[in-house]
Amino acid sequence: MRTVRVPLGNRSYDIRIGSGLLSRLGAECARLKLGTRCAIITDTNVGRHYAKAAFNSLARSGFEPALIIVPAGETAKSLKSVQDCYNRLALHRLERKSFVLALGGGVVGDLSGFVAATYLRGIAFIQVPTTLLSQVDSSVGGKVGVNLKAGKNLVGAFYQPRLVLCDLDTLRTLPDRDYRSGLAEVIKYGIIYDRPFFCRLERDLPRLLRRDRATLTAVIARCCEIKAAVVGRDETENGQRAILNFGHTIGHALEAISSYGSFLHGEAISIGQIAAAALSRQLSGMSVRDFERITELFRRAGLPGGVKLTAVQRKKLFSAMQLDKKVTAGEIKFVLARRIGKVDWGQRVPPETIARVLADHAPAKRIFQF
Ligand SMILES: NC(=O)c1ccc[n+]([C@@H]2O[C@H](COP(=O)([O-])OP(=O)(O)OC[C@H]3O[C@@H](n4cnc5c(N)ncnc54)[C@H](O)[C@@H]3O)[C@@H](O)[C@H]2O)c1
Ligand SMILES: [Zn+2]
After folding, report:
1. For this structure, is 227 an active site residue?
2. Out of 16, 37, 77, 143, which one is annotated catalytic?
3. Ligand nearest to the Cα of 188, by number
4. Is 361 a catalytic residue?
5. Is 319 in the pocket of ligand 1 (CB under 6 A)?
6. How many Cα atoms sit within 13 Å of 24 on the Cβ side?
7. Does the annotation mark 292 as catalytic?
8. Which entry of 37, 245, 267, 281 is annotated as an active-site residue?
9. 185 classed as catalytic
């Protein structure tokens, strides 16, 4: 087992990464000295596989968990689900020392974290992420929230968990498409922060695609270390934390204009990162070689490199980018890379350049329908 500490003063916490952690959940929670009443929030898919193990482990350690199951999928990240969860917490009489435990992917984590942050003005929160994406990204760093019709993650908070447990065994049941989607965030860490890690991914990709346990432990731990370091320096995104948004300006806009239905998050940001790399090539001096290595790694990971848009969709994409939280005074800002491992945030990019890059990387055939 590996432990990575997120350094945030008296709100610091550990991320544990290893096998068999779910059966030790109760014992791990007991060390935090919280109240006995708690709630497990999960979704229908994850619940089917792991709710019983989580529930029993907590009960064995003397906890009294309520089990809340929300529908699987992005639509569960809504104010309606938040309200349903509040009602269940009240029914189960959760109190100030109680805690909420998120058992699932990024959707369950973001929703549960927001519920924990706001119920009784905040109760303790524990994350048990079960997708690769949530283990390397969304469970770390404290961004929690839900979507509005107008846009993704528009309502939320910064709220740190007390503990994150990444049980690698849970990844065995993750569908292939979701697993590859998580790899898009993994590759991002190499591009934004760590050139040797990017080289390692190029070398170890076949092992990673086989979900080899030792490789996964090392890779997930490195991603968490990078995210912890970035978040530790800039918790509420006043500066450096913005580098984590590499590829996300276009990625989030693609998710929004397709009503969060056609692309998985990782697929959208894969397209976004290749576009950002192409922009970096033109505006930040990225070499052709680095650009090719980036596109090649996404291709080998089975992730999309571009999207074919109609004129109407292109127009919608640009208005969606204007709604992004990173826009200031109407100006779209990008994270661009000088080379693999070194990025700058807050880079202004003319809309015509974005449109040209997207057109250049559009596949001949329409792969995503929306
Ligand atoms: N808070 C943050 O910092 C942050 C960062 C990145 C992404 N996010 C958010 O995370 C969400 C995406 O997360 P995700 O990709 O984990 O999606 P998800 O939570 O929807 O999970 C993907 C699918 O896999 C299923 N699943 C989860 N774990 C499983 C398992 N072990 N076995 C079988 N099925 C399993 C789920 O039911 C779902 O159908 C988005 O809403 C995104 O905005 C948040
Ligand atoms: Zn992301």
Report:
1. yes
2. 143
3. 2
4. no
5. no
6. 14
7. no
8. 245
9. yes
- Which sequence spans correspond to the domains of the chain? 2-173, 176-360
**CATH class, 176-360 region:** mainly alpha
Encode the chain (370 residues) as per-residue pLDDT tens digits. 999 999 999 999 999 999 999 999 999 999 999 999 999 999 999 999 999 999 999 999 999 999 999 999 989 999 999 999 999 999 999 999 999 999 999 999 999 999 999 999 999 999 999 999 999 999 999 999 999 887 778 899 999 999 999 999 999 999 999 999 999 999 999 999 999 999 999 999 999 999 999 999 999 999 999 999 999 998 888 888 999 999 999 999 999 899 877 899 999 999 999 999 999 999 999 999 999 999 999 999 999 999 999 999 999 999 988 876 666 666 788 999 999 999 999 999 988 899 999 999 888 777 787 8
Centre of ligand 1 to C-alpha 296, Å, is: 25
CB of residue 137 inside a 6 A radius of ligand 1? yes
Q: Is 176-360 in the same CATH topology as 2-173?
A: no
Active-site residue identified among 28, 225, 235, 237: 237
Pocket of ligand 1 contains residue 181 by CB under 6 Å: yes
Question: The domain at 2-173 falls in which architecture?
Answer: 3-Layer(aba) Sandwich (3.40)
Ligand number nearest to the C-alpha of 146: 1
Q: What's this model's pTM, rounded to 2 decimal places?
A: 0.95
252 is catalytic: yes
170 lines ligand 1 (CB under 6 A): yes
